[in-house]
Amino acid sequence: MSKLFEGLGDSLDVWMSHGDKLIALPQGFTTIATTANAPYAGIAHNSNQLYGIQFHPEVTHTPRGKQVLSNFAVNICAAQQNWTMAGFRDQEVMRIRQLVGERGQVIGAVSGGVDSTVAAKLMQEAIGNRFHAILVDNGLLREREAEQVKQTLEKGLGINLTVVDASELFLGRLKGITDDPERKRKVIGNTFIEVFQDKAKEIAEAAKGSEREGEIEWLLQGTLYPDVIESISFKGPSQTIKTHHNVGGLLEGMHLKLIEPLRELFKDEVRVLGTQLGIPEDLVWRHPFPGPGLAIRILGEVTPGQLRIARRADLIFIEEIYAAGLYRDISQAFAALLPVKAVGVMGDKRVHDQVIALRAVETSDFMTADWYPFDGKFLKRVSSRIVNEVEGVCRVLYDVTSKPPGTIEME
């Protein structure tokens, strides 16, 4: 038995999602794991402590993958098990203070989601009111989102917050983009940075002559490790799956430097950090909302009419999830608007209206995910409400695609 699989028995359920495989052993290596169609699923060097595996031990779909990682890191590499979230928090606060200096100021992107909120609270702990949180209302937020975020961050957590209404600018630039999700993300990411840079200049100008005077040269973002993996190759040759606006969608020549304190954390770790920072439980466990907002949940062109439909359908879905007591059981849920129409009968007339797709997933790391198994009565209730309460919708579908092959978001 190889040290890598020590204590795991003779067989192991793993997640393999590849279109390629090793067809011959490298010189000096021995096979330590196989599958029916991957004869070299695990290999080890005959004399050195070198190992290779073809599966993903880091995802929830590999139930005992953490033990594989522990065997490698602790038993083979003799890594010290002294990392704690409290230590990470103290380390990041010190690092931020050293980067920013005693008079430097930071502008930060917040959305009201757990990632940006935890990042903002950590930044506030590090530099106080020299951190300026910015919520850009890009016209792509959920219903009453901007008002709720302002209430939560400003009054609830005491974070220095400015709300910028840039909805007309964003919607104008998205006009006519019908079938290119990557272009949507790039347009939104670039516009975000333009708005931030303009606001940074305003804040720096307003602070002149005050005790808070100092150049704004840093931009805080709540980027997580899954965002990085899906957008760029960070610590390995991972393929770009999609561009996240806060990773691969930034302007070339951007004069703000990034601070991303959560960049190497997963969602479950961010929630632990948020709890340690005193963020309320309902916010810590809030479902993620993507930076590009409803633009990537509306497949096709984003228009005011399509936004109205997507917002209302999403609100109904989340209301029913709360009412059923399922919110904490689900990692992320939303309603998406598909770029197709279907025939239906509404009242006593034939209609040709749009289709809503519901999506809800279970995951701990957001690298892989399973669709949530709602019962038929729940789906029937949600569907009935949406087709009766949302004008322009005549059909509701439920997405039963896991990740992979699907991503969690639609675009």
Describe this structure in words.
This protein is of the alpha/beta class. Helices cover 35% and strands 18% of the residues. It is built from eleven helices and twelve strands. It has a five-stranded parallel sheet with strand order 6-5-4-7-8, with helices on both faces. Strands 9, 10, 11 and 12 form a four-stranded mixed sheet that branches. A three-stranded antiparallel sheet has the order 1-2-3, with no helix packed on it. Strand 2 and strand 3 form a beta hairpin. Helix 2 crosses helix 3, helix 5 packs antiparallel against helix 6 and helix 10 packs antiparallel against helix 11. It is globular and about 70 Å long.
How are the SSEs ordered, and which strands pair?
Blueprint: E1 29-33, E2 42-45, E3 51-53, H1 65-76, H2 85-100, E4 105-109, H3 114-127, E5 131-137, H4 145-156, E6 161-165, H5 167-174, H6 181-207, E7 216-220, H7 225-231, E8 257-259, H8 267-276, H9 281-284, H10 304-323, E9 332-346, E10 349-362, E11 370-371, H11 376-389, E12 393-398
Parallel strand pairs: 4-5, 4-7, 5-6, 7-8, 10-12
Antiparallel strand pairs: 1-2, 2-3, 9-10, 10-11
Helix pairs in contact: 2-3, 3-8, 5-6, 10-11
Name its key features.
single chain, alpha/beta, 411 residues, 4-stranded mixed beta sheet, 5-stranded parallel beta sheet, 11 helices, globular, 12 strands
